[in-house]
Design brief:
about 80 residues; mainly alpha; Recoverin, domain 1; about 0% strand; disordered N terminus
Length: about 80
C-alpha cells in the first residue's frame, strides 16, 4: 500500500509542476524565458531575484532554471 502512495504522490507532484510551468508563456518562441515574459506570471519578480535564478548568466531562464525556482518556492504566481 505504501508503494502506491509513493507512486501517486510522485505523479501528482509531477502534474502540479507541469501545470505551474504551463502558465509561463515563451512569447517570442526562443525556448527561454526573459524577465518580461516571466513578469506576466510572476509580477513580484525583481531584477535581483531574476539574476540569481539565471545560473548560466545568459539573461534568460531556461526550463531547468525555471523548474528549480518553482520547486524551491522562489517563484509564485501572482
Amino acid at each position: 500500500m505504501t508503494r502506491w502512495k509513493i507512486i501517486f504522490a510522485t505523479l501528482f507532484m509531477g502534474l502540479g509542476a507541469t501545470a505551474v510551468m504551463a502558465e509561463v508563456q515563451d512569447a517570442n518562441g526562443d525556448g527561454v524565458y526573459s524577465m518580461d515574459e516571466l513578469k506576466v506570471t510572476y509580477p513580484d519578480l525583481t531584477e535581483d531575484v531574476f539574476g540569481q535564478l539565471d545560473q548560466n548568466g545568459d539573461g534568460a531562464l531556461d526550463a531547468e532554471e525555471l523548474a528549480v525556482a518553482e520547486e524551491a518556492g522562489i517563484l509564485k504566481a501572482g
